[in-house]
Amino acid sequence: MPKFVEVLLDLPIDRSFTYQIPDGMEEKARIGHRVVVPFARREMTGYVVETLDEVEATYTIKEIKRVIDDTPLYNTQTIALAEWMSRFYLCSRGEALSMMIPGGRRDSSIPALESEEDLLFGRVERLSDEQQHAIDTILKREKPMYYLYGITGSGKSEVFLRAAEAIIREGKTVIYLVPEITLTHQLARQVTNRFSQRVAILHSALTPSQRLKEWKRIIAGEVDLAIGARSAVFAPFPNLGLIILDEEHENSYKSGNTPRYHARQVAQRRCQSEGATLVMGSATPSLEAWALMQENKEVGSLHLRNRVSGGTMPVIEVVNLSYEKNLISKTLQERIKETLNKKKQAILFLNRRGFSYFFHCNSCGYELRCPHCAVALTYHKGTEQMVCHYCGYRTKPMRVCPECNSLDVNYSGFGTEMVEEEVRRLFPSARIARLDTDSAKKKGQVGKVIKAFRDGEIDILLGTQMVAKGLNFPLVELVGIVLADSGLNIPDFRAQERTFSLLVQVSGRAGRYNDQGRVIIQTYHPENPAIQYALRSDVQGFYSQELEIRKQTGFPPYSRLINLVFRGRNQQKVEQEVQKFSAHIEQLTVNGGAEVLCSSECPLEKIASNWRYHLLVSGVQASLAHHLVAKALSDYTPARGVYLEVDLDPLQLI
DNA sequence: AGCACGCCGACT
DNA sequence: GTCGGCGTGCTC
């Protein structure tokens, strides 16, 4: 009977601590149980990862205070995954494990959108040849991963579900990952019906105790399929057969706090070590996934070309805003009028992101770009400089727009409020509602607006990113993208990819229930590749030229980026610390292959009275960048009051 | 991450 | 003389 245990704690130190098991507690203090332990004059929740019969110690070993769980919450496989995560994402094992276990640190995701989904679950339809071929290929499992690539409405969900059913019939289990926003009550109900209750729903709105209950059902073998967002990738199935990753391109698969894991990477790892198959799907794959598909080694590419339920693609028009007086162009005004006359609805989409922290021309939207990285420069008010956050290039902001000679250049921009005002002025009798992050803060507000819109009580819905996802409303005939450029100008090498993806996703949805679907893209740069390829629905064309650009500029997938963010109350101290670390890592950068690209203030240099500086490391070979940072971090602890966060494969540098 | 210990400045 | 700044080290 073991008398000692090794315990991991949710601390940024990567060590375990030894505790003694009090008499009579031996049965319950096993691997997989959470325990309460005394630790440096306080109590903490710990995770038992090992049991020991005897230990040699030069210190006095303390006793476990109490055991939390009656039955194990995790197994050696889970612990191994946490170990991998700590190595891969450069965090401690305790941080990784406590992030995986419910009741641990909360997963701070956005509250779920109460919209309904249109995945045609439950309805048994005849499969198309393409779908049948995809299912057959997946079930052969000749490759460890498959990518189901096809437009919205091509029946990806049905392929996923049939594959899941087949795997479950083999006695194995399935994890079905969806972006947070698509996991709705209706979707949950449909999946539950289809798999006759043997389903666990891991929703972010669940309380820790509800989440724990679902975990225990999974462990107890009462469940064949778990559906959920990002963190559902940790669902503790002992006999995992399949992981489905729907809408693979979605950024919400990447965690926003330490460890900043990506559900796709974790899923890959789990499938690899547990002998399961990974099936991903999207109409607009991430460039990383696309590159893997082209290689055709580990990822098998399955293309769904046709829409299952018919429905034509919408007519897409591009309007050049340069020749327009108003923010809402004559063409868009005309289309809105037509739509309203037909008693149909319109959605106006505005990508507001980024306008506040970069400098641009208010007349034509012109933006200063980095000559080395081809990304927009970020305006720093304090130093009156334009800075590239990938290579550190600096220059003075412009006084006159070089494109249109306008003097109206500054760092302010227009937001949803401004557009709303204009729309109200143009259509005084229309019923208009706004849906964005500000209005989403009020609880229940989002659901109310969406319901009203669905019930036809609103004519024009105005919104940001939020409306782009769940916008399947039968009465919508018109989608207007008020300013496609606002996404193109953000200082990010993925700006083109995101814009293209968004345009394709939005267009794909507009024609879903309706043969009259129309999409109007307003832009100052109609010649932009993202817009042009989206207009022609040329997905492959966009990816090949974008991959070429990434190759030339040395960005992912042709390199690995690691962003190290230092933050703290005291600006001087944080700055000093970055410089100190920069010198330290520079010294290790000897045989090349990986280098420090840039170390400077963050694009948003102060958040919640915390000063932020970052250091960006890049490696042509992923492992070289990883090794360099791991080595630099191995014998380093930041000064007091300075906190370091590691972001491996960052999606944005804010 | 916390929390105590310890060594230097300005205060009832 | 003490209160309190934050630099350093440790936690089984």
Automatic annotation (TrEMBL):
Pfam families named among the record's database cross-references: DEAD, Helicase_C, PriA_3primeBD, PriA_C, Zn_ribbon_PriA
Binding site for Zn(2+) 1: C361, C364, C401, C404
Helicase ATP-binding domain segment(s): 137-303
Known catalytic reactions: Couples ATP hydrolysis with the unwinding of duplex DNA by translocating in the 3'-5' direction; ATP + H2O = ADP + phosphate + H(+)
SMART domains per record: DEXDc (SM00487), HELICc (SM00490)
EC numbers: 5.6.2.4
Binding site for Zn(2+) 2: C370, C373, C388, C391
Cofactor: Zn(2+)
Family per record: Belongs to the helicase family. PriA subfamily.
Subunit structure: Component of the replication restart primosome.
Protein name (Swiss-Prot/TrEMBL): Replication restart protein PriA
Species in which this protein is naturally found: Sphaerochaeta halotolerans
Lineage start: Bacteria, Pseudomonadati, Spirochaetota, Spirochaetia, Spirochaetales
Gene transcribed to yield this protein: priA
